[in-house]
Design a protein that fits this description.
Distance between the termini: 38 Å
Structural class: mainly alpha
Largest sheet: none
Number of helices: 15
Number of strands: 0
Shape: globular
Radius of gyration: 20 Å
Helix content: 55-70%
Length: 359
């Protein structure tokens, strides 16, 4: 792979760097991360354009096994852990205006949710116990650990069917989808884990139940931050606890916005009462915008990810016949928050795609 592309994946670290810089400059500088993500990246995407090139088949194995790409995700795991501790400390020990509080919290969530959950998603699909552990650490920092179970064993099985909480439906607003995906996804993770334990002959009330740990670990982490910072500053403060869960809420809401965009209105055909057709590339929306794909570790090549979930991000392929989004995720996420605009842009594209598929 070209060396410029290899370096490109380190660009994700620009976002938290801007957040740190904006925080210490103060005031309106806290907007720098938001402007970069939702204005500058889309502008660069539009200028640079799409990259539809794939890694040559004879090089796929060597590129997939190149430790360099795993090293980036490992670096991010340790960085995010340090970053969230710094952010909680900063929010708890500095005097901030309401504007600074809001913009700083959003900016932090763009790193922990936009990048962090993307990296967790990548790591959580791998066979390596170390990578799966790092996935869980990242998800703990955004209070969304059940995603590890529900995404792998729920969403990937039921994607683009009415049974999948994480698949948005045609004419469903992001806000209606958010509530359904968050609540039913969490309950689904419990159901999947309980059935797994039952098959193994273990009690769902035992320490072997991952969902018990996944539910309490973020609270333990937040409590440790709260009491640790309170001890250091010499007085008890609830700010660490409140800030941690505020950024968590925004972070996993960002994930749900991505979920909303990825499969909007796409459906698998039902073969019989109990079965749907296999997952194909045309069951996911894609975006090949080069710059946003660097920041998102090629998550926007979503068709190939669902076609082969264990495949590493650096070798995900573009599928020419898969449905294409008109812009990268940053732009589409903004549109998703304004339902009339979203429907105006995406419903005609969905109809056009359905007509093409049925032709």
């Amino acid at each position: 792979m070209h060396w410029l592309k290899k370096i490109g994946y380190f660009s994700a670290f620009i976002i938290p760097s801007l957040t740190i810089l904006g925080f210490y400059l103060g005031g309106i500088a806290n907007l720098s991360t938001l402007i970069f993500v939702y204005a500058l990246i889309p502008a660069i995407d539009a200028t640079v354009g799409r990259d539809r090139s794939n890694v040559p088949k004879d090089a796929t194995k060597s590129v997939a096994n190149d430790f360099y790409y795993r090293f980036i995700t490992y670096c991010w795991t340790f960085f995010q852990l340090a970053f969230i501790i710094w952010a909680v400390w900063a929010a708890s020990t500095q005097s901030l205006s309401i504007f600074e509080w809001i913009t700083f919290t959003i900016a932090v969530s763009l790193s922990t949710g936009g990048i962090g959950i993307t990296v967790a998603h990548e790591l959580g699909h791998k066979k390596s116990k170390l990578e799966r552990f790092y996935c869980k650490v990242l998800l703990m920092t955004v209070s969304y650990m059940h995603f590890y179970i529900e995404h792998n064993k729920g969403h990937h099985v039921r994607v683009s069917t009415p049974e999948d909480p994480a698949t948005s439906r045609e004419n469903e607003s992001f806000y209606a989808f958010w509530w359904r995906s968050v609540t039913k996804g969490y309950l689904s993770a419990w159901e999947i884990e309980n059935k797994s334990l039952e098959r193994k002959g273990k009690s769902k009330f035992s320490i072997h139940n991952q969902m018990i740990w996944f539910t309490i670990l973020p609270f333990i982490f937040a409590a440790a931050l709260t009491f640790g910072i309170s001890l250091i500053i010499g007085q008890f403060t609830w700010i660490p606890f409140a800030f941690f869960f505020a950024q968590s809420f925004l972070a996993f809401s960002l994930l749900e916005a991505v979920n909303y965009v990825e499969h909007y209105g796409l459906r698998r055909k039902k073969i019989d009462e109990n079965r749907y057709e296999r997952v194909e590339p045309h069951h996911s929306w894609n975006a090949n915008h080069m710059v946003s794909n660097f920041f998102l570790f090629q998550l926007q090549r979503h068709s190939d990810h669902h076609f082969n979930a264990i495949k590493r991000y650096q070798v995900l392929d573009d599928y020419e016949k898969a449905p294409q989004l008109p812009a990268g995720y940053p732009t589409m996420i903004l549109l998703a928050h304004i339902p009339p605009l979203w429907f105006k842009v995406m419903n005609p594209k969905l109809q056009q795609w359905n007509n093409l598929k049925s032709a």
